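Exercise: predict the fold of this chain.
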Amino acid sequence: MRRHPPAWLAWPLAAVPLIVAAASIAAALAWPGLAAATYAESAAEYVVGAFWLLGAPIVGAVVASRRPDLLYGWLLLALGITDAALTSTGLYGTLALIARPDPLPLGLPAAWAAHLLWLAVIVHLPFLLLLFPDGRLPSPRWRWLVRGVAGLGLLALAFGVFLPGQMGVVPVENPLGATGAAATLVEVGANVAVSGLFVAVIAGGVSLFVRRRRAGPQQRLQLKWFAYAAVICAVLLTVNGAVAFLAGPLVNALLGALTFNALFAAIGVAVLRYRLYEIDRLVSRTVSYALLSALLVGVYLVAVLALPRLLAPLRAGSELAVAGATLAAAALFAPARWRIQQTVDRRFNRARYDAQRALDAFRARLRGAVDLGQVADELQAATRATVAPSVLSLWLPGQTGMTSRPEHGARGAARAPSSAPAAAARTRS
């Protein structure tokens, strides 16, 4: 039997990052110069940054407390503890060396430790992909990647000790930084090791596709949840530069915090199989509203740019153009949403699309049906097509019991007498 930590240990471990995050927020409010002494541009951005990885220990505690046998929950807790150590050492190093007029003891070792701990955070990323969702490798052949990540992590830490210039978390010079030709060698080695870790992240993503080929229906849904959140995360991280330029660093920090914590929430849903079967509906709605938003924004912009030229003779041409664009977008919303939703459901949510077609056909046939036996047959056929029950029972008023029969392969039929005045179907999936 494989041993694992006790379930009660999960929440005390998760409390450590929460306490550290609260302490860093309190420090940012108590020392106004703290944020300015870091790479954050404002105290609000520094506070938001404290929430970036806070979802990892929370989700890890939920998973580990319910399923202590799964390694994945403890991996998320380890990421949270590492990030807490990074935050606390970086916070103390900044206070000790920059933010306070009088330096505090051990400030330089704290800054140096924070400089190395951010590399330890990166090391967790390939494992989050490689071990999803049950904490096991897709196959023993992937052990080479585990060894490679461990070796690259140690190599990055070794070069990071002597990396010249400012350190990555606390903006002070590295006292152990190499000089001359050795500095060039250390920089090249550190860049190669860190680049190798990001290549390992890509390899971890490939392992998800390999796992999917051998997975059962339930694990495929778990992988679909992870892929859904990862795609959204990748899209938002791609546009973060434009967001920072247009909306400012604070909005960009908020977007990053929401992105990463949404990814951790999706991991928790997938690992615990909570509402697992709603992923198709979620993907369908996301794609539909993204396409609908793009269509309406395009129509609005085209109308705003084109109508002023047509209405140029009028004094209120620009106001009429904005009003016309708004009305056009509002008029297009309902029909465009219905058409886009139908198209997207056909591709991403086929079960709902087929069920809706079956219900529409049942309603159409029900308008001309007058025989109760025919209605009962149609009701059972529609129920089987939409719900696929394991047992289908038909209850008729005036009878003492129900007629029921197991649905063999979810395709059987339960016949009922057609002489009763009304009928209702009861299913058990």
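Check your answer against the key: The first strand starts at residue 391 and ends at 395.
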